[in-house]
Amino acid sequence: MPQLLNGNKSLERANIMKERIIKTSIELFDRKGFKETSVQEIVEVMGVTKGAFYYYYKSKEELLKDICISYMEDLLQQQQRILQDKEKSCTEKLYEIVYMLIRNIKARRKSARIFFREMRHLHEDHLQEIKAKRRAFREHYQQLIEAGIARGEFKPTLTPDMITFGILGITNWSYYWFQPDGEISEEALADIYVDLILNGIKNRESFKEK
Amino acid sequence: MPQLLNGNKSLERANIMKERIIKTSIELFDRKGFKETSVQEIVEVMGVTKGAFYYYYKSKEELLKDICISYMEDLLQQQQRILQDKEKSCTEKLYEIVYMLIRNIKARRKSARIFFREMRHLHEDHLQEIKAKRRAFREHYQQLIEAGIARGEFKPTLTPDMITFGILGITNWSYYWFQPDGEISEEALADIYVDLILNGIKNRESFKEK
Amino acid sequence: MPQLLNGNKSLERANIMKERIIKTSIELFDRKGFKETSVQEIVEVMGVTKGAFYYYYKSKEELLKDICISYMEDLLQQQQRILQDKEKSCTEKLYEIVYMLIRNIKARRKSARIFFREMRHLHEDHLQEIKAKRRAFREHYQQLIEAGIARGEFKPTLTPDMITFGILGITNWSYYWFQPDGEISEEALADIYVDLILNGIKNRESFKEK
Amino acid sequence: MPQLLNGNKSLERANIMKERIIKTSIELFDRKGFKETSVQEIVEVMGVTKGAFYYYYKSKEELLKDICISYMEDLLQQQQRILQDKEKSCTEKLYEIVYMLIRNIKARRKSARIFFREMRHLHEDHLQEIKAKRRAFREHYQQLIEAGIARGEFKPTLTPDMITFGILGITNWSYYWFQPDGEISEEALADIYVDLILNGIKNRESFKEK
DNA sequence: CATGAATGAGGCTTCATTCAT
DNA sequence: GATGAATGAAGCCTCATTCAT
Question: Which keywords label this protein (chains A, B, C, D) (predicted)?
Answer without folding.
Answer: DNA-binding
